[in-house]
Design a protein that fits this description.
Elements (H helix, E strand, L loop, with lengths): L1 E5 L8 E3 L9 E10 L2 H7 L8 E2 L3 E2 L3 E9 L11 E5 L4 E2 L7 E5 L4 E3 L6 H4 L3 H13 L7 E5 L4 H12 L3 E5 L4 H7 L4 E4 L5 H8 L4 E6 L4 H5 L2 E9 L13 E3 L6 H12 L7 E6 L3 H9 L5 E5 L2
Parallel strand pairs: 4-8, 11-12, 11-14, 12-13, 14-15, 15-16, 17-18
Antiparallel strand pairs: 1-2, 1-5, 3-6, 3-9, 3-18, 6-7, 7-10
Helix pairs in contact: 3-4
């Protein structure tokens, strides 16, 4: 099968031919129709995760997936060949990714059905970033009436976070440059935009003179952002910081937890038009190098990959 498989890291992502996987006990084999690029995939290819997670080669990149169950492994219940599914591969060892024609994925975690009304393309860009956004809001305790600053609002996680925060009744301040970035963010939800490349502090204080109730740290200088919190403000970060990284501020580290319940919640919101999946570009699998390069340059929204 065609797959984005690496023989070592760091390496430039490219398509090669490898043997198709078979589902082990407790797994389903998915014929992948669509996937997406996430920051984690870029970090793996660059070798940044080499010392923190076991790698087995050839290593197929990719976390998100959407497609059709082709085969079920021993002991799997609740899924059958022909089911339309999506999710996130979450395994302790990096080897079986989803930027491929087929992927063997655990049936018990990180897998859910695609509901009617949600396209396969959108489902393939929903799982990891959508989960990270929802988990970040929960970690920061964002609720109705809160003022929340989303730093990194133009990326995949940020684009979901501004929508989910606004849906909770929060007042959302989003970081974006004037022009295309600001237009993108304001098209997602009723938000107020501040330019992160300008005087961020002045922009935020103009909207929230006493500071914000919560910060979602998805990008940027965490110390600078922590200084914008009010007295009882909360800060959640997806960037792997320890809880005590900023003196005087407790950071709530976020690791995406794509349970079936979380995935189903996100999928149903998207299917009902309550959550927009912000796919801005679709690349064929053969152009994965261009997709990774675009991500590295700060592409807006989500980059989808058509795998079949």
């Amino acid at each position: 099968m065609r797959a984005v498989a690496l023989d070592s890291v760091p390496a430039t992502p490219a398509v090669t031919e490898i043997d198709a996987p078979r589902p082990a006990a407790g797994e389903v084999l998915v014929r992948v129709a669509s996937a997406s690029v996430n920051g984690f995939d870029v970090a793996v290819a660059a070798g940044y995760v080499r010392e923190t997670m076991e790698h087995r080669f050839p290593l197929v990149l990719g976390k998100d997936f959407a497609g059709t169950v082709a085969e079920v492994g021993e002991g799997v219940t609740g899924f059958a060949a022909g089911d339309q599914v999506f999710g996130v591969v979450m395994t302790p060892v990096l080897q079986a990714g989803t930027l491929a024609q087929y992927a063997a994925v655990p049936a018990g975690y990180g897998l859910a059905r695609i509901p009617e009304g949600l396209s396969v393309k959108d489902a393939g860009a929903l799982g990891l970033a959508g989960t990270a956004a929802l988990n970040s809001l929960d970690a920061a305790g964002v609720g109705e009436g809160d003022t929340v600053l989303v730093a990194g609002a133009t990326g995949g996680v940020g684009a979901y976070a501004v929508q989910l925060a606004a849906a909770r009744g929060a007042r959302v301040i989003a970081t974006a440059r004037p022009g295309a970035e600001a237009d993108f963010v304001t098209g997602l939800a009723p938000v107020q935009v501040v330019d992160y490349a300008g005087d961020l502090e002045a922009g935020v204080r103009k909207i929230a003179p006493d500071g914000v109730d919560a910060v979602l740290h998805l990008a940027g200088d965490v110390t600078r952002l922590a200084g914008l919190l009010g007295g009882d403000g909360r800060l959640a970060s997806t960037l792997g910081l320890p809880a005590d990284a900023v003196e005087g501020t407790t950071i709530h580290p976020v690791l995406a937890d794509p349970s079936a319940e979380t995935l189903t919640t996100l999928a149903e919101l998207a299917a009902r038009g309550k959550l927009r999946v912000p796919v801005t570009t679709v690349y064929p699998l053969e152009q994965v190098h261009e997709a990774f390069a675009a991500f590295g340059k700060g592409a807006i929204g989500k980059i989808a990959i058509a795998c079949s």
